[in-house]
Sequence to fold (137 residues):
Amino acid sequence: MRKHVSQMTTEEKIMVRAEVEKVKEWRITAYANSRANHRVLAESDILAAIHHGKVIEYNRNKDDKRVLLRGTRLLHGKCVVCVVVSLTDRCVVTAYVNKENDVHRTLNWELYDESINIATEMEEFKWGSCNGNTLSG
Fold:
C-alpha cells in the first residue's frame, strides 16, 4: 500500500520527514550496498538524499514501513540520487539514480491509495532491526 507525495497533505509530508529524521544511525543492506556500488554511488550521496531529499512516497509492505526520498544534489550533472529507506528497520533498502527532470508520466496510479492515513500509520509504528553496515556521516 503506497501513498504518493502528491496525495499527501502538508502535515503528512512533515510527519513522514520527521520519522526519517528520528533515525540517528542508518544501516545499509547488502543488497543496497551492492546496488550502490554497481551504480557508483558514494555513501555521502546516499546520506545526502536521506538528510536533504524530498519525500516522494510512503509505502507499507506488511509490517515494513518505507519511504522513497529523492535527493536534491545533481550527480554527473543530470541525475539525482533516490533512496528507499525502511523506517521499521532503520536501513537503506536500495539506492539508484534518476534523471533530474523525470516526472514519471508512466506512473501506475493503481498502486497508490490516497486514503492512507499517515498519522495512524505513524502511531502504529514499531521499530525493527537491520543486519547491515552502518553508514557514517
Observations:
- Residues 2-99+111-134 form one domain.
- The first helix runs from residue 10 to 22.
- The chain has one domain: 2-99+111-134.
- The helical segments are 10-22, 30-38, 43-52, 118-123.
